[in-house]
Specification:
By secondary structure, the protein is mainly β. It has 5 helices and 41 strands.
Amino acid sequence: MNPMFRLFPILTVLAFSLSIVRAQTASELDVQADQLSYQGGDNTVTASGNVVIRKGAQSLKADVVTYNTVTEQAHARGNVVFTNADQIWRGEELHYNFITGKGSFPRLDMEVGPFKVHADSTERLSPIQTRMEDVTVTTCPDPEDPEFQIHAGRVDVYEEEIVSLQNAVFKLRGIPFFYLPRFTLDKEREPTQFDVVPGYGSRDGFMLLTGYNRYPSEGYRTKTHLDYRSERGPAVGQDFIWYNPRENRDHTRLRGYVSLDDAPYKSDEQEAQLRGEGIDIDEERYRLKFFHTSNPSPDDTLWVKASYLSDARVVQDFFEREFRDEPVPETRAVYSAVGDGWNADIELSRQLNEEDFEAVNRMPEATFNVPRRAVGDSNFLYESETRAGFLERNYTDFQTDDEGLEDYDSTRSHTEHLVFYPTRHFGWLNVIPRAGFAATYYSDTYGREERVTPTSTVTTNNVIVTTLQTNNVEVSRGGDMRLLPEFGLETSFKAFGIVHDGPTSIGNGLRHVVEPFADYTFIPEPDLTPSEIYQFDDIDELGEEHSLAFGIRNKWQTKKILPSGRNRVEDLVNIGVRTEYDLRSEADPSLGDLLVDTELQLVEWAWVRFDVRYDTDLGDIDSINSELRFEHPENGNSLRIDQRFRNDEDHTLQFTYDLNPYGRVGMEGYTRYELEDAGFEEQELLFTYETDCVGYGLGGKWIKGDDYADGTGTDDDYQLWLQVWLTAFPRTILGTGGR
């Protein structure tokens, strides 16, 4: 046999291998398969059996793949799986070009984050865009029979988000319940894309509250509200939110809400009551709110918030949870800076809703603080606070017209400086004398003087009778300075004893610590007293003081072993008792209120805190605030009991609970009970149930009606609502009052 014929098979295999190597080198394709066959005439390779072709982030798996080593056009058949970064396409057939990034699936199943997508036809238009026709999208684990799905005529996929679902029909258990001509899904978002809360309220009637989220670009989100209440009318809102995706917190928020309220008052009785208080509400109601925070430098912070309202009750009526956190709207901007041993800020604030809310406006006010620090290498310590600005005190229209209060303003400059000299005696007694002064300048002060006003009348006998009426009137006295020198002495010591030396069920060892303290202060009476100063804040209340504050703090401590093996001292019981004795001879009563504050945490899952104020003059408790909290560290079950007592005012208990929050069935809510009137004030309850795909919530709320002094009042309010959310995303609307 001719030797060339013997070498021919070897040369053929070698040539084929070299062509594959050249093709892989040129196109960076990595090909793996059980069998390879090469047609040299048209540069085509057929790979079969466990075929895997990789190029960069792209990966193609199939039973059989035919591809051109020059054009990199591939035709895959059988169990096709195409992966690009974290996107996965599945189908039975694929035409794809690794150079252009274009291709098409006759039928396709793919995954993008939590979304599972099925399409009857798919075309990859570019490396970043894929277009699908007749599409079903779901987050359910079983895409063949999903509990929830969205069906769309056409869908475009751009890199890591699904966009432009056109003619989207939402279905729950196969039943259509909503339609959008255009809809966007983003796998990076945290809350659900579309929130719908249907319900019924005694005041609102049937209601449908909706929120639609969009993420046009990274770090920017919008939310559109379309609400309808059958008894009150339509309402719309728009939120614009700029956020930091790395820190997962908002930097700027602009929120607007407008309602055409057909029933701004609950009843005729409430309308008469509120109008009598100067609260007038029109049918056109709105709320505009702005918030911004930023860090111009690592040590500087800019913080801005503003609220503009149509009336005094709009937030309470439509955003109840927001009203509880901020019952009086604020508009202010604060720029803060921190340096080496100092901090400063400048604040500009003005109440934009001055007709309905009284306020102190700062136009602006600057503050410079030096926290307590050592003076050079000496034992002296120094601290100071300086602030200056133009202040305005504005009253509401009702307070001005009906109560006779008048607005006032003043430029104020205040500076306070203290020097301390810490000493220790006998190795255990701390004695810290201090001395300093506070000086405050006011551009306007006032006083009162008697003025006599003559009044003349003519009797029936034509006799003129003149009477003199004496009035106490307020007169302006111009600018003045208040100087407050201060001298004081603080003393304390700490003693402790070992109660138990050894391991216990709550830690290692038990120690009792006792810390008695006393603080003496003397400030002589200034020439300018608080009765001659326009009042803006606590600085204007400063004046003569001669007092001794004293008390004792008791702690029971143990050591807890950290995972690192180190010990940490923790307070199990922390009880403080404090009062103040007024040493001025004319002071009555001399002994001030007795204050007791206590914190207990004997186990990790329970925590107790309460404080009591006892009026020593009346011999009665003035107020009690307490909190008892239970929280299981593993299952998340929690119960919190808050108690508030104000003598001759109110005495309330509130129970807040969250049961089985991580399970399929859960319950959350709160109950507030008024002990003084022996009746419930408010209750809210939400039952939740989650499947593998969809979460359902059924909520209810009840609020006791108002009682007025004239014997009238309003009916109780109640609401019922339903929530549905995808378990792949946390729900965002927990109730109708927390929009």
